[in-house]
Structure to design on (540 residues):
């Protein structure tokens, strides 16, 4: 079958983490030392900002940014902003995960759906969907519905292609044995194909989640409203650079936590799969 | 001649059949506005969009903004490929650099790149340089990680053979390691290309006075939805063809592989 070709559209595995941090840590026998460059960088930020080489407007000292974050934390603003951004990103991601896997399964099993969705996906994947933002605003307004739709619209493509490629890659022998044992088409789909394609599907989800966060922050910046993106944009307009840098650190922590969480989830969910038995790379 | 036609005919038919769903969607758009299923204030009729697209193209406004977008995107992407690729290969090649840079890369990689928009605006204002810096910073890490993984994947036996045949360290780097890093690095560049479009259009929508993203926002704010839809479609096509062009380039660069 032509169409979605695996080489061009299959999402590349996210962060095949080849960096050998653990190796360094083992050598020194101390985990923290591996992170020393990051600590040095942060200290350098503080010293450079205080040296007077740049104005505090362009680069406020880290300590003052942390103070700002602490005050946002105690006033509760931090939870509102981070919570709203997370809610939108995860809601959009959840919608596209469910829809994307369903469409992918349908495409892989039913010819009609493949015929219908294949050109849409192969054209829709590479186009910059963010350009449609004003149209979505025109249709759905400025509030959560339009932001969440935009996130889902941007994240669904890698999930669909990963699902299609994953189901196609399921070994024929597994399908034949299941059929031989009298499995119904329905059971074959949900109990054989879906689990067998799960590693690929999960890779698609791991590609999609960071996109959800990127687009979530963008929609907040463009449409306003609360959330980390909105607060950063307001801070930038008011020349409040402390607010901008506090926002960067907050969203960086959220992004890092989500990526790590997905890696943990992957190990948990795919414990039964042979990839878990192979030497771990993550 | 007829033999060529006989080959082209079926191919054309297959192509038509393959892209029929897109055609159906366009027909649906036509029908929806023709029979008033939706208000034209929400979805302008396709012919109007095409006409106003034609006007924009002939008036030259479109080209000025396209030029400025392409300049920003192209420059930022080029710098990110050169710097990111060099950094990735250097990290694979030289161990101390790897130990210093890998935790830093790991921290910055998951940062949602769009969060850099207000910072670059704060530093460099609303013009070209802030967009170039944004795209450079946002697109660099996928290239770095691709180049790094590719270079680390260079077969040790090849490196040893090159060395034992008398290649200097530098020769080995450029004749063995860089070519082995290329396929994965080029994959990273494709991710970077897609990211550059997102960051460019979004930053122009949010903070700019020029560029295609700005033009979309400007037309939309003025209530010229025909024009807005036309430019959105133009940007979508630009992104699509950039990706296809890149894939063709990719195949050409990697033609030495099987």
């Amino acid at each position: 079958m032509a169409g979605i070709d695996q080489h061009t559209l299959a999402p590349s595995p996210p962060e095949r983490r080849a960096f050998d941090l653990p190796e360094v840590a083992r050598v020194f026998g101390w985990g923290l030392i591996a992170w020393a460059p990051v600590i040095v960088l942060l200290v350098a930020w503080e010293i450079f900002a205080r040296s007077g080489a740049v104005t505090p407007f362009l680069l406020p000292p880290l300590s003052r940014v942390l103070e700002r974050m602490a005050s946002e934390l105690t006033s509760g603003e931090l939870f509102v902003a981070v919570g709203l951004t997370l809610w939108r990103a995860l809601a959009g991601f959840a919608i596209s995960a469910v829809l994307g896997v369903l469409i992918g399964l349908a495409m892989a099993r039913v010819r009609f759906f493949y015929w219908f969705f294949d050109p849409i996906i192969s054209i829709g994947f590479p186009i910059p969907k963010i350009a449609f933002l004003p149209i979505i605003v025109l249709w759905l307004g400025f509030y959560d519905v339009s932001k969440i739709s935009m996130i889902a619209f941007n994240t669904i493509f890698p999930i669909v292609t990963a699902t299609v490629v994953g189901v196609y890659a399921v070994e024929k022998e597994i399908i034949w044995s299941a059929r031989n044992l009298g499995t119904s088409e329905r059971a074959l789909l949900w109990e054989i194909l879906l689990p067998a394609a799960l590693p690929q599907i999960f890779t698609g989800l791991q590609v999609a989640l960071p996109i959800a966060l990127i687009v979530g922050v963008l929609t907040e910046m463009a449409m306003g409203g609360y959330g980390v993106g909105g607060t950063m944009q307001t801070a930038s307009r008011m020349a409040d650079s402390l607010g901008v840098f506090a926002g960067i650190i907050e969203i960086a922590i959220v992004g890092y936590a989500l990526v790590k969480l997905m890696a943990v989830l992957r190990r948990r969910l795919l414990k039964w799969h042979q990839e878990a038995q192979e030497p771990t790379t993550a | 001649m007829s033999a060529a036609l006989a080959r082209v005919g079926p191919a054309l038919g297959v192509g038509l059949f393959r892209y029929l769903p897109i055609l159906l969607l366009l027909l649906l758009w036509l029908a929806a506005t023709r029979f008033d299923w939706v208000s034209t204030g929400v979805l302008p009729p396709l012919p109007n969009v095409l006409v106003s697209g034609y006007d924009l193209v002939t008036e030259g406004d479109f080209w000025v903004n396209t030029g400025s977008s392409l300049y920003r995107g192209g420059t930022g992407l080029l710098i990110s490929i050169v710097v990111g690729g060099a950094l990735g290969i250097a990290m694979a090649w030289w161990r101390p650099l790897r130990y210093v840079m890998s935790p830093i890369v790991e921290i910055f990689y998951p940062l949602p790149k769009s969060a850099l928009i207000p910072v670059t605006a704060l530093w460099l204002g609303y013009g070209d340089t802030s967009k170039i810096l944004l795209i450079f910073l946002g697109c660099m890490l996928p290239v770095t990680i691709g180049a790094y993984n590719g270079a680390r994947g260079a077969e040790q036996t090849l490196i040893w053979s090159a060395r034992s045949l008398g290649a200097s360290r530098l020769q080995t780097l450029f004749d063995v390691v860089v070519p082995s890093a290329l396929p994965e690095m080029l994959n990273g560049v494709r991710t970077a290309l897609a990211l550059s479009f997102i960051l460019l259009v979004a930053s122009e929508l949010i903070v700019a006075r020029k560029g295609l993203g700005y033009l979309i926002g400007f037309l939309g704010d003025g209530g010229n939805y025909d024009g807005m839809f036309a430019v959105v479609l133009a940007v979508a096509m630009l992104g699509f063809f950039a990706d296809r062009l890149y894939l063709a380039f990719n195949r050409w660069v990697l033609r030495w592989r099987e």
About this structure: Residues 186 and 250 of chain B are 7 Å apart (CA to CA). Chain B is about 85% helix and 0% strand. Residues 53-253 of chain B form a domain with the MetI-like fold fold (CATH 1.10.3720.10). The radius of gyration of chain B is 23 Å.
